[in-house]
Amino acid sequence: MGVLSRLTALIKAKMSQLLDQAEDPAVTMDYSYERQLELLRDVKRGIVEVVTSRRRLELQAEKLRQNADTLERQARQALASGREDLARLALQRKQTALQQLQGLDGQIADLEAEQNRLQTAEARLAAKVESFRTQKEVIKAQYSAAEAQVRIGEAATGLSEEMAAIGIAIDRAEQKTERMRARASAIDELVEAGTLEEFGAPKGDRLERELQQLTANQNVDAELAALKRQLGPPPDTGRLEDRR
Amino acid sequence: MIVRILSEGQYRLDSMYLDRLNEIDNRLVSVVADGSDEEFRTLFEQMLALVREHGQAVPAEELVTSDVVLPDPNSHIDDIKPLFVGEGLVPG
């Protein structure tokens, strides 16, 4: 048995679950109008979940981009102050952030595609539900009772296949958003910790503190220079030098 | 014949393509058994292309059942494997 025959059998099994309740598929479909509306609500909810996951990943990607920019700036500062070791560490972290970012971008695109597929599927199911309701009346008016039953039955089976297929699509989207949620929480921790290679490291680890110290020193130097300019040449430069 | 691509929709495809579909399907079975996702994708893309290029999309208002069902175009090899566990997802 191949992939196609197994999948075709799977759909038929789901269809017969839907049609099982009555001998006449047309009657079943009438009764399952509620189920059709329920499915349409399910797919709408699925779309909302996919969109939420996507937004969350986009937000994380934005944070990672900012982190990468900050780390690069810090690397420059470190290098300017002759601290190549710190600069190297900062650049390593920037690379890790960029790698994460690449993975995220792919997943964001994937979720976008999923969203489009669900939206198309929703529109198609809605069109088929509507079509079934009108076709039924037309067929009833045009054919003898026996013939009408056969034709409406065929249409009902066609609709039930669409319902089975959309059920599978919703399950799939749910699994996907669940995986994304798990991944997003893992990345949240990384972003939160500010350090990407030491998973779960406390905020303000050694590198960050040293870089902050470096920035603080540079700021002090800059302010000092500014003050000196404001005050003009001091009578005794020695005192200021002492304070440094 | 009517061919459905899951989550994409139905196509009306001339039955002359059935042999070609079955041929790719047979190769898919062995790839799913012991191949990589890359090999799976290559074959699966061929299958999708065959249906999309030679088939005609069934209008949304039309209510017909499919003769053949293809997986979701975005499927990974791991999504297909469960179909082959034991009896597959469908007993019998």
Describe this structure as you would to a colleague.
The complex is a heterodimer of chains A (244) and B (92). With 244 residues, chain A is mainly α. Chain A folds into two domains: 22-157, Helix Hairpins, CATH 1.10.287; 165-199 and 206-231, no CATH class. Chain A is 87% helix and 0% strand. Chain A has seven helices and no strands. With 92 residues, chain B is an alpha+beta fold. Chain B is 42% helix and 14% strand. Chain B is built from three helices and four strands. Chain B has helices at residues 18-34, 37-54, 77-80; strands at residues 2-5, 9-12, 56-57, 68-70. Chain B has a four-stranded mixed beta sheet, covered by helices on one side. In chain B, helix 1 packs antiparallel against helix 2 (37-54). The longest helix of chain B has 18 residues, at 37-54. Chain B is globular. Residues 87-92 of chain B have low confidence and may be disordered. Chain A binds chain B through residues 1-11, 13, 15, 110, 113-114, 117-118, 120-121, 123-124, 127-128, 130-132, 135, 154-159, 161-162, 165, 168-169, 172, and chain B through 4, 6-9, 21-22, 25-26, 28-29, 32, 60-72, 74, 79-80, 83-84, 88-90.
Largest beta sheet of chain B, briefly?
Answer: 4 strands, mixed
Major sheet summary line of chain A = none
How many independent structural domains of chain A?
A: 2
- The run of helices and strands of chain A is HHHHHHH
Assign a percent range to the helix content of chain A: over 70%
